[in-house]
Give the backbone structure.
Amino acid sequence: MSRALPGLAVWVAALALAWLLPGHLWHAARPAPFPLEALGPASLALGLMAALPPLLVYFAGPSLARRRSLSALEAPPDLAWALLLLALWPAAAGPPGWTAWTAALLAASLPSEARWLASALPPESPFPQAWGAQAARASRRRSLARLLPRWLAARLPLWLTASLVVERVFGLPGLGSDWMARVIARDHRGLALWILAFALLWIAARPLEREAA
Amino acid sequence: MKRLLILLGLAAALGAQEPVRWVQEAFLADPGPLDFVKGEGQEQFIAQSLCGDALVGLSAEGRPVPRLAASWKAVKGGLDLTLRGDARFADGGAVSAADVAWTFNAIASDPQASPTKRAALGDLKASGEGLHVSLRGSRSAARLLMELWRMPIARAGRADMGSGPFSCARDGSEWTFTARPRHFLHPRIPGLHFRLLPDESGRLVALQKGWLSLGVPPPQPGLTPPPAMAELIQPTLAQLIVWAGPGMDAGVARAFARWRRDAFPPALMGRAYAPAKGLWPAALGFAEMDPAPGPEPCPKALELVYTAGDGMTERLLQALAVRAARDGVTLKLRPMEAGLFIDQLTKGKLPLGAVSNVFDPDPWSVLGYVEPGGDLNFTGWSDAAATAPLMKLDAPESPAWKELQTVWARHPAALPLLDLRSVLWIDRRLEVRPSALGIYLATPGAAGWRWRE
């Protein structure tokens, strides 16, 4: 419990900030309703983001972090991916929907997340590489199992809110837009609920981080 | 064989029919749920203008025209109106005086009611029976007629239901406004379909790919509409205004009035901006007037705060700072988050603050500058000489307006820098009526649009 205190203090401070955020709008508008229709696509995108980078890193190993091809994919910001997809989208097909949003978000996020995980893996040379491929994969599997909960708790909320850019380009109000709209409208209660949800995610991930005795 | 020929003929006739064309549009921000009492913001007002009817509308030329009220009569202390007999809410119920009284009472008594509507309502009280409505308050009848368009009438007890020419349905991030053919304005388009497109680049691509029938292009100079679209430029009643905080004397206003004349290069302003002239919007009938001459010099260093995130405003203010430097004045620009900016501005804590304001299409909307507690009077501006003309503003052409403006010119608390224009790209086949209120808020608004054959 004492190890969790500093983290809990940070979340309480964030909650207080959300509740006491100063400022107001000139002509205060009511915040839009929570975008329930975005929950499905967001869950799918986050599920893919949670599954694909660990799989990629499991097969490619820590050397993935030094691949130039990954750097090339990582360089464009999410705005560039979204605009590229929008420009290539056939006019006759009508405006792109959640499928395009998921594709742009994954294109923007997967390379960075794969690098994040690959860099966090312990080196495999000379050991366990010297003991053979099976030993190396076992080491990766164990390391990834230790990393995953921490990674999910730290990175996924970030992507959830960073998806705002892609949502704005495609005109699909999702979770990122909801978060930002509540900051702009100074919806203290809505913001506090968001912080609470993130804090719960962090708390839920903590037992999974414990070292086996 | 005969049957087959008839069927083929029917199929050919159906195929030759013009497809039903809906107007594809985009909101720049989420309008929120339709609410005729609490709803606030430009997008919400557009939705209300489509789904609701005010007692009196404003024509594209800015004149009061019948809407829910078929006729009216100015009486001592207000207006007596007679409602149309054929106005129906979305559920089929007839519009009556009870609905008018309920709407006005809800705006006045609900602490979360729209501040814009509350300001338009003032101390107005509605009563009546059947189709006869009495409006009583301290404002003149001429002013009331110009302000009633702000308040569409909701069904008593149902703040989300209006009697307008379109009915609204929301599905996720899409809004569909379907024409009500029996409405007294007789809408001539089947409806409008709105998407939410807040991003300028995304909106531009949607316009270029033909996914929108009309939309606001990014404010970059040099952009041209695609061949199927035409550009429509509407004068608006929006201005970029500089407010001077406490401690700022008339010398600052005089300096800004001088700089605004030649600070902004036309290539930078594009079609969406023009340098403002005078103190109050000329479009409201005010004579061009500069701050009165005086002995106060302009300080050599000034700080101008503005809302962060608007790249165009930032570039224009940078041009202003360059112009100020030519007079030896250092104009430091400081961006601030919108919520914090408004908080500081309304508390009178900013030395100088620049923000856009949209005036209503009647001269009384400038009273917010001069009345104690006015919605634009952030620094508590007052002048004993203003009391007399304020009592005599019963008509737009009253000479008291000039008198009041002369008092304001002695030590103005705010000065407009730029007049804003609305630039729209519109499908060439769509016929709309531009106005200073925009294409939606005037009467008949979207109900008067039609597709050219």
